[in-house]
Design a protein that fits this description.
Elements (H helix, E strand, L loop, with lengths): L5 E2 L6 H7 L40 E2 L1 H8 L7 E4 L11 E3 L2 E4 L4 H12 L3 E5 L5 H9 L4 E3 L5 H12 L6 E4 L6 H6 L2 E4 L5 H6 L2 E2 L8 H13 L2 H9 L10
Parallel strand pairs: 3-6, 3-8, 6-7, 8-9, 9-10
Antiparallel strand pairs: 1-2, 4-5
Helix pairs in contact: 2-8, 3-8
Length: about 250
């Protein structure tokens, strides 16, 4: 791995490395080929069964300087503020005669917000618009803190942080337009999607190559989890999870 990026995956434990070391005294007894074994016809590789240990090296990479910034100060990042239009969506508004009818959200982003909460970083939603679609999405994701129709996002954010007892240094923010600027300028980590306004990109510590509603929020979540050291543990935990019914992603 080059000096410009760092993985979220910790070094393998010594016992795992021992498992990967070839046996210096292999058994000389010849083994039958798979096709020579009884019942081997048509067999294909099967996934590990219950109780079988699996390991997966994290493929995600971020620049060391960015990870350092995303670690925050003191106890680290404790909360992350998300805009909705242009961040959790692509910014498009679908308005009919009865008003706004629907929004399109991304399941990758949704699962990222849930992972963030599981990793001990509280997701907060502050949006300048209010609609049944946004409230339904927030409820489906199980998010506990949201402000809708916020004409003053700074006042809304300060109210939430006061309730949670958090300083700005322990808060990350992702936004895309001018109303988000007061939050971005105060945050310990300021991020923007690729579709953000140029003034927002100018103050952001990190600008994603992904657009709002198309994975930018998930990358933001992944960055925070990597910087906190929780990404790999959550990844390994996912490998041991039995298939479940679709949730609110």
């Amino acid at each position: 791995m080059g000096p410009s990026s760092r993985s979220c995956m910790p070094d393998l434990a010594p016992d795992l490395m021992a498992d990967l070391t070839p046996d210096p005294t292999p058994d000389p007894t010849p083994k039958p080929a798979p096709r020579d074994r009884p019942g081997a016809e048509g067999l294909t590789a099967q996934p590990p069964g219950p109780g079988v240990e699996t390991q997966l090296q994290a493929a995600i990479r971020f620049a060391p300087a960015l990870l350092l910034r995303a670690q925050g100060t003191g106890l680290g990042m404790r909360a992350a503020i998300f805009d909705v239009d242009g961040v959790l969506t692509d910014g498009s508004l679908y308005i009919g005669e009865q008003g706004e009818s629907f929004k399109a959200f991304n399941t990758l982003d949704g699962h990222g917000l849930k992972l963030l909460k599981w990793g001990g970083i509280e997701p907060l939603v502050i949006t300048g618009r209010d609609s049944p679609a946004v409230r339904k999405r927030v409820a489906d994701l199980g998010l506990q803190h949201a402000v809708y129709g916020a004409s003053d996002k700074l006042a809304a954010a300060q109210g939430l942080l006061q309730t949670l007892g958090l300083p700005w240094a322990q808060v990350a923010v992702i936004g895309d337009d001018w109303p988000d600027l007061p939050l971005l300028l105060r945050a310990g980590l300021a991020c923007a999607p690729a579709n953000a306004h140029v003034e927002v990109k100018a103050v952001a510590h990190h600008v994603s190559t992904l657009r709002g509603g198309h994975g930018a929020a998930r990358e933001f979540c992944d960055l925070l989890l990597c910087a906190s050291g929780r990404y790999s543990a959550l990844l390994q935990a996912a490998l041991q999870t039995e298939p479940q019914a679709p949730d609110g992603r």
